[in-house]
Design brief:
Layout: H1 2-16, H2 21-28, H3 32-39, H4 47-57, H5 61-65, E1 76-79, E2 84-87, E3 91-95, H6 102-136, H7 140-163, E4 169-171, E5 175-182, E6 187-195, E7 198-206, H8 211-220, E8 229-230, H9 233-256, H10 262-284, H11 298-311
Parallel strand pairs: 5-8
Antiparallel strand pairs: 1-2, 2-3, 3-4, 5-6, 6-7
Length: about 300
Amino acid sequence: MENQNLAQGVKELRKRKALSQDELAKSAGLSLRTVQRVENGETIATGETLKRLAAVLEVTPNELLEFVSEKEVPKMVLKTKHEYIHFFNDKLVFSKTPEINLVEDYGKSVTYVFSTLMVMLIFIPLFTATGIYFYSVGNIALALFSGTYAFFYLMSALNTILFGSGKPVVDIADITSIIIEKKLFHNIINISILESGKIKQRVLVLEKEQIQPIIETLLEEKLLDEKDIKINRKSESIKFSLFCIYFITISLFGFFFPKRSYLIIFISGILLVMCLKLIVDMLRNSVFLNSNIRTKGFLENARTGLDNQLVK
């Protein structure tokens, strides 16, 4: 038992000090293999090894031997296609692996958002300059097309900056809704979070076989309302049909008017509609215009109501 406590203690205290196994070994004057074997519980540390490790980790040898982890254990962990959701009593933690590593996961989220924004911020001036050029040479259709594309990327960048949520830790009290819904090509779990005066969205893709177990688990834990299960195949079929009509219409325009600007103007109109939808979504997710703000902490309220019913 002491061996396991020591292994857990060395591993956890090392991570708290942001030390790698190699850095700990060098600071303690030990071999990397020795540190690895101690952390894996494969060896009983000698008195000298114990003293050296305790000195670097700034604890006494006895505290290291009797170490009790302060790490919280999640109530449950649900796997989505690309991430894991760890459920605690007062928070949700998102991670890329079954084990929680906040520093690494936050770094990955920041890198992803930064890369996305870089692409958008490159295309905004590129399409703007292209639009200005086409306008100067009198090609209004292509100028409109380029300008609309620049506007679309600008709205997408604003939406990502203001309403994209990359935080790996979310307080239960800040969640306004959890919805499981079917999109055109995949199913998702959409978690709305109140943060900095805005409703932000955390969207996770679900594999087909993950849907029912996740629904059953969330319903059992009172984390999901049945009205928020929106896996409606009929509505998605309608969306797919509209997409096909849109594609066929564009093809017909291209076939009948190959030398005219109607096709370009038509696509520009579709892009403009998408831009307007982004604007509407951003306004809807602002704290002043979103009625969902009144349901802040809905999970806690639901649990409180259930407890009161049980008491009665």
